[in-house]
Write a structure and sequence with these properties.
This protein is of the alpha/beta class. It contains 13 helices and six strands. It starts with a helix and ends with a strand.
Length: 292
């Protein structure tokens, strides 16, 4: 499947690190500046218990870290408040329904695909298309046995709390949601439709991603991860490029304000590969990919 939304969801959630061959590369990049050390870890938001244990390199870089930086500071997040905020952001301020927002023709296509997957339209009818697409992706991942509690962020947040390590965020939940909420309705609708592609295509996509990951070929991994976004330049720019630039500037500022610290930066794997990766946006640094 070459669809952007499920490609995005899978790349952030379905990389089974425990299946990586011994001695192969891992999704972790090491940057040593004149002042500090930054370790960039490609995250997986949903995983299964069977995907553990992770390669030893994950625990090693965690042990080395003084501070954890995640997309959002999960340690201080109120889960209930965050869910309410997402639900509120994901609905049209005027109360418009999905059909009114995307038009009758595209709504029929959404309904047809949802019915084929057994997803009730009543779950989507009051949502903006971007939020409906995210909801569909999450439901499909949960149905396949993947759980956020087993994701990299959740696991490492727990480890950091137990170890007394500082956790900070690179952006707020509002900023993260805005990357999707501010997209044009056309792009949002494409995003939703692609989240509803047939199960067989989704399974094939998962295997394609896993094969690319296991090769340890960073370029192949980038090509596989970003292929679906090629048809949605607005999505690619908002979801990836703009945030990567902002994060790189934040890391530069942290580097200037600190001395002799090790920062473990945990962000979605898509942000750490390709020509627009965080590493590429951070001018003047050299990043080394670690191996197990």
């Amino acid at each position: 499947m070459t669809t952007a939304i499920f490609r995005y969801a899978l790349l952030l959630t379905l990389l089974c690190f425990s299946s990586l061959s011994h001695g192969g590369p891992v999704p972790i990049w090491d940057i040593q500046t004149a002042n500090n050390r930054f370790i960039l870890m490609g995250s997986v938001h949903y995983l299964r218990p069977s995907d553990y244990p992770l390669p030893a390199a994950f625990d090693q870089v965690f042990d080395d870290a003084d501070v954890l930086l995640m997309e959002i500071d999960m340690d201080s997040m109120d889960q209930m408040q965050s869910m309410l905020q997402m639900e509120q952001t994901g609905k049209h301020p005027s109360g418009k329904g999905l059909k009114e927002m995307i038009g009758a023709s595209r709504y029929r296509e959404v309904a047809m695909r949802a019915e084929a997957l057994g997803i009730p339209m009543m779950l989507l009818d009051d949502k903006e298309p971007w939020y409906a697409g995210m909801l569909v992706s999450q439901l499909r991942l949960l149905a396949s046995g993947f759980q956020p509690g087993w994701g990299i962020e959740a696991q490492f947040s727990q480890k950091a709390a137990m170890a007394g390590k500082e956790i900070n965020g690179l952006e707020t939940l509002e900023e993260q949601l805005a990357a999707l909420d501010t997209l044009s309705l056309d792009t949002q609708t494409d995003f939703l439709l692609e989240s509803l592609n047939p199960q067989q295509e989704t399974d094939e996509e998962m295997q394609q991603v896993l094969r690319a990951w296991k090769t340890g070929d960073e370029q192949l991994l980038a090509d596989t991860m970003h292929e679906g976004m090629a048809t949605m330049p607005e999505l690619y720019e908002s979801l990836l490029v703009e945030r990567n630039i902002k994060w790189a500037r934040t890391l530069e500022q942290l580097d200037q304000r600190n001395q002799n610290k090790t920062f473990l930066v945990i962000v979605g794997a898509m942000h750490l590969v390709g020509k627009d990766s965080v590493q590429q946006q951070w001018y003047g640094v050299s990043a080394t990919q670690l191996r197990e």
